[in-house]
Amino acid sequence: MRQYLVTAESSSELKSKLKNIREKIEIENPKSVLVRAFLIEWHIEKVEEFSKVLIEELPMAEIVGCGSNGSIVDSKVMEGKHLFVITFFDKTKLQTLSYEFGKGFESVISNVICGEVDRRQNVRAVELFTTLLKMDARKFLGGIHFQDKSISVFGSNVMGVVPNATDDLKESAFILSKNGVVKSGAVVVVYLSDDLQVNLYRVLGFKPLGMEFLVNKSSTRVIEELDQKPAYEVYKNFLEIPNDENFVANTIGFPFMTQEYNHDVLRIPAECTKEGYIVSNAGIPQGRKIRLTYGNPGEIVEDIRNCREKVRQFKPEVVLIYDCILRKSFWGNGINLEIGPFDKFPSTAGFFSEGELFGVKEGIIHNECTFLLIAMRESEGVEIEPFEDKKIIASKEVSMLRRMATFVEKTTSFLDMAYKQMTILNQQLQMMNVQLSYMALTDELTQLFNRREIEQRIHNAFISARLLGKTVALIMIDIDFFKKVNDTYGHATGDMVLKEVAKIIHDQVNEDNGEAAGRWGGEEFIVLLPGYDSNGASKVAERIRREIEAHEFTGVGQRTVSVGVTCAKKGESEEDVFIRSDNALYKAKESGRNRVVIL
């Protein structure tokens, strides 16, 4: 496997330089050739010119590529030129699949891609380029699950958001392919081989600030509320970043961190609306927990060093770097600290992307602000001597970042403690409010609704029944000979009987259906049954009567109750129904007690 880097300022220059590549193909006779094109051109007419040159000059090659925010050539930033990374494979067959589609077809195309990959044998890797801003990214990526979990999946999201762009260039995403230019959709490169090995490495290096927030409300790309407040307030309250034209620039060093498939991912604000909603190109689903983070230069450099050592041990023949443009903005002139350490690897090349795709066993992670390195080999690989662990001298800008990071870390420690204390106090206050609300609604002894609350619920049920044309029933319950219990055993025992009767009644009531039970006064109870007719209510009443009769009450043995049941009739007032309920209960007592009477 070999990799050649071609740079050009125009399509005509590219055509001239590709003659040398064509000669190398004829001489070396590789099994497959892949061209990755990273263009700094966004006008589609110019893009199509480059596409035409590639297809005509290298008809045997597979092609993939997109717009670039700067290229990486031999581990250095290259500006002002287009980059073409041309890889010769000796033992790997390549196949390119391209799909032009938009919103509404995400699941269909995901299924097609899965089917195409699953039916092929010896798939070692899948490279995926997508225009995710022109579709539902979560639905599209979430639908891609290959049967073979060992397949390495990587690639880039192509957004085509051009800084300071004119209207004709806004969201001018495109993907190059062997079949031409895809303006909305996906291009997939399938690597088939018995010998190809692909290792993926992902570096974040951003440190959580410690405070955790819940995404209460969000859509595909918009984070509306965090902890039931507009999302912007997190940046306002903790970092004092104003919601103005510099908001995005000021938040580059402070992305959100959440998780996808149990892996940390970063989300950078792309916009903040006047309502305080934060737009993120990758989005965060509702219900996720997130934290603010800050870019820690020291940790990033250390993670890069660890990554470099792992790559060295892998002995790659080819190294690709897909680094996020936001990290380039974060580092400024210090970007060499991130990409420079890989300069000893052969033909290390890549570009600054707008979103990095990284496959794990559970699915595909849509990254932002992430350093993604792809290492490949078909043979034993290339031996690289161990790197000297020399101290990296930071630029003035990075030194300032370090000082800022130290300040943020110390400040955040204080804020985090205050935040936790405030959270505890809020929880205690909420608990007290809940307890007070509960006390205001319930009878202290029996824990059923008190008379005031049950009357209000009955009133509301009658209004609802009249509006909807439904029925409502009441059950009145009185403990038989309760005065004898108090006189014989004392009021403490009488209170125990009241509590046990109340529990039996409560257990027979389905509160999810709007049913309710309350203490009417003394030893009398009332049950509200919305939607019941007399027959249904009488069954509930009889069930309550039997349960109480069979119960062994603490200290007094068995007791009984008399029960009156009534169902509201058309045109009746609430007072009429209450009177009939009382009459039914009275008849139950007059008829010998321990029975249910319906009126």
Question: Can you describe this structure?
Answer:
The strands form five sheets. Strands 14, 15, 16, 17, 18, 19, 20 and 21 form an eight-stranded antiparallel sheet that branches. Strands 1-6-2-3-10-11 form a six-stranded mixed sheet, covered by helices on one side. Strand 14 (206-218) and strand 15 form a beta hairpin. Helix 1 (11-28) packs parallel to helix 2 (44-57) and helix 12 (482-489) packs across helix 13. It folds into four domains: 2-199 and 350-368, no CATH class; 206-295, Beta Barrel (Elongation Factor Tu (Ef-tu), domain 3); 393-441; 451-598, 2-Layer Sandwich (Alpha-Beta Plaits). It contains 15 helices and 31 strands. Mean pLDDT is 88; it is low at 162-170 and 392-397. The radius of gyration is 36 Å and the shape is elongated. It starts with a strand and ends with a strand. The protein is α+β, with helices and mostly antiparallel strands and 599 residues long.
